[in-house]
Amino acid sequence: MGVEEQRAGKFYVERDVLDELCLDQVARRRTPSTTPPLKDRVKDSLRCSMPKLKRSVLSTLPVLSWLPRYSVRDNGLGDLISGISVGIMHLPQGMAYALLASVPPVFGLYTSFYPVLVYCILGTSRHISIGTFAVISIMIGSVTERLAPDSDFTFLNGTNGTGVLDVTARDAYRVQIAASTTVLSGLFQVLLGMVRFGFVVTYLSEPLVRGYTTGAATHVVISQLKYIFGIHPARFSGPLSQVYILIDICRHLPETNIGTLVVSLVALVVLIVVKELNSCYEKKLPLPIPIELIVIVAATLISYYGNLNSQYDVAVVGEIPRGLKSPSLPDVSLWGTVVGDAFAVAIVGYAINISLGKTFGLKHGYKVDSNQELVALGLSNTVGGFFQCYSVTSSMSRSLIQESTGGRTQVAGVVSSVIVLITVLQLGSLFGELPKAVLSCIVFVNLKGMFKQYLDIPALWKSNTVDLLVWLVTLVCTILLNLDLGLAASIAFSLLTVIFRTQLPRYSILGQVPGTELYLDTDTYEEAKEIPGITIFRSSTTVYYTNAELYLDALQKKSGVDVGKLLTRKKKRDAKQKRKDKKEEKKAKKEAKKQNGVNGHLPNGTVHPEDKVDVEKGSPDLKENRTDIALTDRPTNGQVNWAYEQQWTGLDLGSETGSHGDDAITQTSSTVGEETRGRSSDTHTIILDLSTASFVDTVTVIMLNNIFRDYREIDIDIYLAGCQVCVVEQLSRASFFSESIPKSRLFTTVHDAVLHSLQVQGASDVPIYECGLDMACTTKM
């Protein structure tokens, strides 16, 4: 059946033309394996064995797979140094990001302790640092401030009638709200992980995630401006709330606390300068300078000895309780109110976590299980919620420090938790005089990476304008509609862009590159020439119910064959021909009657045999007329090619006037030539290249059936080419193949379909191509 020779720079192939039936024989198609019944599959899943039990335990508790093989000699020192470095970063970031969540700073330290320990046991990534993160913190903060605004905890002072804010009651309720939201979001993540729903994050494209985090960073900045300037703006919620807050901040700027502003400016300058030095001398410094911790210690000492709170009214952190909180049940009654926010936190937190985890996994050559990561993050949040923590995810800055300082396993996370634990138990109370403005400055400086994402705009403008549109729409929706509605609107818009791109694909007419078996877009390649009489049509995407009608319209437009008009014209012509035949038949009967009346009857009343033959055959005039019609209809292999007849649009072949002048023919042919853009109008074959299709639905099957039926009516052959195996199987299940559409209409390649069409049309020679680069290709029929 086939011969293949290969040598340096050349190949030679000789084979028969392959349709789907021949391909099954040549390639020896396997019999599809039958899927076991559901009952058997359930039994098999419930059946227990030692290897299966071991796999389940190791997949559920990944720590058991790497901890027994842990090498202290190889990994101990690196994990120790890395854990100390990350632990030092946890202290300022935990307290700073707690302000974003609108809870007391000590709860940021709790959040940097409990969830980290849980992830070390259940997580599959070795390098990411779980804990507080700016975007998740601001999402939790939007919930706590909405459900526990300051106005609900303000009461009138009986002495002077002024409003007094009960900070203790407000903070306690906000912690309760944050913990309840965290537990619910953790349960969402665990359930999604158990049903193997880790792929849900694939619907959050990278431009969407980066646009969303950039918009969330804008929320963070606006929320921290009040601490930078030492002012007390009003709180707004709902769409456009950030605009209203910004306007109100500008209105309160004359009330700026000068002491707070000075502290903020000094802290910002020191943080920015030292962090830039860390970046410049990254390769020369064994460890980055822990400037955040240094600034916190220095600011606390200055505030304590300078009495900044009492003399200059600089807001400070306040009393930090020593020790850990005992676990408590979350307030389940709040779940109905925060369910939407909890789900948004679960999805965004997981998206950030898995993208960062897979980045390090690819870099260091290990696998990160997306479903197990979902379970690990969910249990970290669920367990943390019982200890008054708020939602966590991985942090880019801490993860980079953990990797760059030599961390190789999650032992580094355990070491960082120990650092946080020591601080909470012994050192936390020393930071009571720390100015809140310094924590806000730490938040500002750590947002540098997010704001650098604005550089995505020129990059996406050059590479992909649709992704740029997703990025910008996500940014605008996140800023204007807030974090929950903004995320929903962004996902909806992102999915719409996918639908629009499949609804507006590129439709192409393919032509053959001379001397090769390649068929390329004639609009893109000058050397791609159409084969006379054969139209090869291709869509750049899968055809399904949303673009099936567009596919059919593009096929008619590109091929220059308007099936609807041709079928209507054929019906009119058939009806006219039928009327004319009846008229001629009546006329013939009248003539026969006249002849019979004169001399056509024998004595017994029978018709003369010769006259009977005349009646059956018709008059010579009738026979002559039928010959004229057949010539006008231009038969092709005994049938009328109605696509060819489209060039005679302006002619009424059945009219009595007989306007068959040369001018009319020339004018009509010119018009059709313009409509088909130079394509030969005597199309006898259309080949549909379905190589880009990954599936077919019911609408597509119906459309293909209609194409075969309609074009058969106008004597145009339709062939399919390049279908993937899954598409062929779906067509078979949909009963697409039948006596009128056999599998022999489906070909392996476009070239096979072309050669078959040429053979059907009577081509005698088989082309032998010199393909360039010393490549020869021969295909025989």
UniProtKB/TrEMBL annotation:
Residues 570-624, 657-678 are annotated as: Disordered. Keywords: Membrane, Transmembrane, Transmembrane helix. InterPro entries: S04_transporter_CS, SLC26A/SulP_dom, SLC26A/SulP_fam, STAS_dom. Residues 524-757 form the STAS domain. It is found in: Membrane. It is a multi-pass membrane protein. Pfam families: STAS, Sulfate_transp. One of its GO terms (molecular function) is secondary active sulfate transmembrane transporter activity. Residues 608-624 have a biased composition (Basic and acidic residues). Residues 570-581 have a biased composition (Basic residues). The chain crosses the membrane at residues 258-274, 286-306, 332-352, 468-500. One of its GO terms (cellular component) is membrane. This is STAS domain-containing protein.
